[in-house]
Write a structure and sequence with these properties.
By secondary structure, this protein is an alpha+beta fold. It has one domain: 3-Layer(bab) Sandwich (minor pseudopilin epsh fold), CATH 3.55.40.10. It is built from two helices and nine strands, in the order H-E-E-E-E-E-H-E-E-E-E.
């Protein structure tokens, strides 16, 4: 009787080849994922710069003083405007005629933080608007104050991807720029 030897397993060489191929594929996917997060952060920064430029024009056209606020917990931003009669801040709704001024949720994978800078000779409350309790609480997240004269309060919004930071800056000279770090 001839005994037949049964081959039920993989050789060490076959296992090493599969592990090496998996490592190469996972490495390529990881590099691509990092690039995609950076692209998403860059897209969000470009959108935000467009929104700021639009609000400058909107404020000048309507004569409204606007405040851009960031809700860091919800990763959203929205606009407030000054009610000239009540002299208080109110949330700008989507009925303002533009989707750009509607509340916007930033991509959840993009980390967002703000830096407020003080312009030389700037007034703390240029419109002399009374702040309610709720607006005082939300003022911690104020990014920019936009006046009908197209003035910006200097500020930075930093959107972080995986490897790069995109800094949207506003300054007292009405410029909006994106810097990459």
């Amino acid at each position: 009787m001839a005994s037949s030897k049964k081959n039920d397993g993989f050789t060490l060489l076959e296992i090493l080849a599969v592990v090496a191929i998996m490592g190469i594929v996972l490495g390529l996917v990881g590099v691509n994922f990092n690039r995609n997060l950076d692209n998403v952060a860059h897209s969000e920064a470009k959108r935000f710069a467009r929104v700021l430029n639009y609000t400058k024009e909107y404020s000048a056209y309507t004569g409204r003083i606007l405040s851009l606020r960031l809700d860091k917990k919800k990763n959203t931003y929205y606009f407030l405007y000054v009610d000239p009669i009540k002299r208080s801040w109110n949330r700008l709704n989507s009925d303002s005629g533009s989707k750009l001024l509607s509340p916007y949720k930033i991509n959840e994978h993009v980390k967002v933080r703000t830096e407020k800078r003080k312009a030389a000779g700037a007034d703390e409350n240029p419109a002399n608007i009374e702040e309610t309790q709720s607006s005082r609480r939300s003022s911690k997240s104020e990014i920019a104050l936009i006046t009908p004269f197209s003035d910006f309060e200097p500020a930075n919004l930093i959107l972080s991807g995986e490897t790069k930071n995109y800094i949207v800056t506003t300054d007292e000279f009405d410029d909006v720029e994106i810097q990459i770090q």
